[in-house]
Design brief:
alpha+beta; Butyryl-CoA Dehydrogenase, subunit A, domain 2; Butyryl-CoA Dehydrogenase, subunit A, domain 3; 3 domains; 4-stranded antiparallel β-sheet; 9 helices
């Protein structure tokens, strides 16, 4: 694929200007109100299943509205007993003529309180276990039997509502199965997650860069022992560690994204990116609060306190760090021949 470098550069400049001039000045407002202003808010993870496996009719109906921001989507996988063990799906989808009837509960679903479209996993083959017999459905808000709960009170990430989804005799047409194929839902979800893990790694690296910028600015102006704290070697060590880990994460993400663009298998690399970048972001957040000192703990003084809370979730969703450690080890062992 040939890219117009001039146009791409102009696009990046426009994005940076929007973030600097429009988004950043409204961060405090989002923190106070818990709401994103009326600019399209969405999650790619909620639409990616349609992108990779949806029928042409499904794509035509949903993707334009999701891309424009007219509709918001969510991916509903997690259940009371299906979190890290995502294939332990208890939500049932019972066939009834040309329809399916869904019953079950989903938890900790990002965008659930505001989503217009839900991608929902449910078991269509009774008696099956694990990934077998799981299908993915696209369900619109307003469908009788689908109710989303109130947004949870959370540690951070104001403006990103999370809640439960309840399905009680929710009847949907059989054509709601993504791709029109029963039993392929877990594979569809995994395809979406592999891309999203690269995205989340990048989403963790950006805040790390932002936090380091805030910490460096503070260190240059905060005077202790007669000089800016940036001149103290132990503070410089914290800065050096942050910058080095950010560079490592960014390099991993770019290399993995290039491989994916070439059509190569990046299951292992995507998992490593998600694991390393999210853990890196947590370490950077901790160091930056340390650089701020007591001021870093006071929300009235600097946004670093909010960032510290917001980035904690990165290590939990879309596979905890521990699940990714197991996944990375399993894939490595499978690829390494026995002596």
């Amino acid at each position: 694929m040939i890219r117009d470098e001039a146009s791409f550069g102009a696009f990046l400049d426009a994005v940076r200007k929007f973030v600097r001039d429009k988004a950043i000045p409204r961060e405090a407002e989002v923190e106070q109100t818990g709401e994103i202003p009326d600019v399209g808010t969405n999650t790619g993870i909620g639409s990616e299943g349609l992108v990779v496996d949806g029928t042409e009719e499904q794509k035509k109906r949903y993707l334009p509205r999701l891309a424009s921001g007219e509709w918001t989507s969510c991916l509903a996988i997690t259940e009371p007993e299906a979190g890290s063990e995502a294939s332990n799906v208890r939500t049932m989808a019972r066939r009834d003529g040309d329809s399916f009837i869904l019953d079950g509960e989903k938890r900790y679903i990002t965008n659930a309180p505001i989503a217009d479209v839900f991608t929902i996993t449910a078991r269509t083959e009774p008696g099956t276990k694990g990934a077998k017999g799981v299908s993915a459905f696209i369900v619109e808000r307003g469908t009788p039997g689908l109710v989303s709960g109130k947004p949870y009170r959370k540690m951070g990430q104001a403006g990103s509502p999370v809640g439960s989804v309840f399905l009680d005799s929710c009847r949907i047409p059989a054509s709601s199965i993504i791709g029109g194929v029963e039993g392929a839902g877990f594979a569809t979800v995994m395809k979406a997650l592999n891309k999203q893990r690269i995205h989340l790694a990048a989403l963790s690296t950006g805040p790390a860069m932002r936090m380091l910028e805030l910490a460096v600015d503070h260190a240059r102006t905060r005077v202790q022992f007669g000089q800016p704290v940036a001149q103290h070697q132990l503070v410089q060590a914290l800065i050096a560690d942050c910058q080095t880990e950010i560079f490592a994460a960014r390099s991993m993400i770019l290399e993995t994204a290039r491989k994916r663009d070439r059509g190569e298998d990046v299951v292992l690399e995507a998992s490593m990116c998600k694991y390393f970048a999210t853990e890196m972001c947590g370490r950077v957040a901790d160091r930056c609060v340390q650089i701020f000192g007591g001021a870093g703990y006071v929300a009235d003084y600097a946004p670093i306190e909010r960032w510290f809370r917001d980035v904690r979730l990165f290590r939990l969703y879309e596979g905890t760090s521990q699940i990714h450690q197991l996944n990375i080890a399993r894939l490595t062992l499978n690829r390494t021949p026995s002596p």
